[in-house]
């Protein structure tokens, strides 16, 4: 039997279909753009109260899939294992069941055994952690090997003295904010020699981000310190782990409260440029201009602040960011965390697109799903589901960490 609809019934059916279509399209737009799909609820452990301040992606159990190590403030640090499809499961008890004020994490093979190791630094309780990997997703706690305690925020690793071993830079704040340089011991790889007095100038650093990169094209890792108290600082390395400050090479037009330093070739001239990501204040009043500052390298290791003509003005604080070519045009674009300060209000993660010449425009609505609203922090990049596209794992403070799969 064929049921015939009255004109009223037809009108009701059409209206219902239109409403359903509108809701479906609105939800799809909220969770997905042409560049990324938010799969947080189906792919990550749900814990909206955790303060995930930093994330690192690496295959720690040898199955060929990128796992996630989370630096968590005031809770034990975490390992999320990837099943290969980008779905992560929380493997508990891997790291010490202790709550520290952990700020940052780095992963590398420090003892040259072919397995990845992990180092965390903490701020308020000054309790840094160091773990040697067994290659199967388990770790041995060897934190006693770290030479010193400190109120740390910045952290980076790299071979600063050319011996083929990973060394450690720790950026410090607090009452004695001298940053640390720990050289990996060539006689006992995986142990450290405190080389701070020999290698670093004695300064009041107040460092929130330490970045190792070759900035003058001599094949040697140099150092940039992004500081919460001005000025930010640039140091050249002699190749043996001795760093000399180069203040005349770093143009700093305005006082900054910097939280992360990124280095990348913004304008396509084959020279690394510097991007400082900044706060108005750390959750307080509006004190400083938080606009990201882009300093262009002249090819000789001199950096000129060209922010005004290259970076859109911003009024939100940025605790972290990442360089990624999200539109696949061969040019490095930017993903920025965002928090409205004051009043430390959750915001959508931001996206800036590069025109290929180092000029950036705001494209958040086209690139980032609306569902990413939170107090975003550390951002890690990697292909977590094996489809050849770069994905975003976004740590957040007191809001759910998020996973965006690249499209």
Structure overview:
This protein has 407 residues and is mostly beta strands. It has five helices and 30 strands. Strands 2, 3, 4, 5, 6, 7, 8 and 9 form an eight-stranded antiparallel sheet that branches. A hairpin with a 6-residue loop joins strand 7 and strand 8 (129-133). The protein is globular and about 55 Å long. The chain starts with 6 loop residues before the first helix and ends with a strand. Mean pLDDT is 93; it is low at 1-28.
Percent of residues in helices: 10-25%
Summed up, the helix count is 5
Low confidence ranges: 1-28
Main β-sheet description? 8 strands, antiparallel
Cα distance spanning the termini: 46 Å
Structural class comes to mainly beta
C-alpha Rg (nearest Å): 23 Å
| Residues in β-strands, percent | 35-45%
Could you name the key traits of this structure?
4-stranded antiparallel beta sheet, 407 residues, globular, disordered N terminus, 8-stranded antiparallel beta sheet, 30 strands, mainly beta
In short:
The chain has 407 residues and is mainly beta. The chain contains five helices and 30 strands. The strands form seven sheets. Strands 2, 3, 4, 5, 6, 7, 8 and 9 form an eight-stranded antiparallel β-sheet that branches.
Secondary-structure blueprint of this entry?
Blueprint: H1 7-31, E1 36-38, H2 40-43, E2 52-58, E3 67-75, E4 78-82, E5 88-91, E6 100-108, E7 117-122, E8 129-133, E9 139-141, E10 151-158, E11 167-173, E12 180-184, E13 192-194, H3 196-199, E14 207-213, E15 222-227, E16 233-237, E17 243-245, E18 258-264, E19 273-278, E20 293-297, E21 303-305, H4 307-310, E22 321-324, E23 333-336, E24 339-340, E25 345-346, E26 350-354, E27 360-362, H5 364-367, E28 376-382, E29 391-396, E30 402-406
Antiparallel strand pairs: 1-30, 2-3, 3-4, 3-6, 4-5, 6-7, 7-8, 8-9, 10-11, 11-12, 12-13, 14-15, 15-16, 16-17, 18-19, 19-20, 20-21, 22-23, 23-26, 24-25, 26-27, 28-29, 29-30
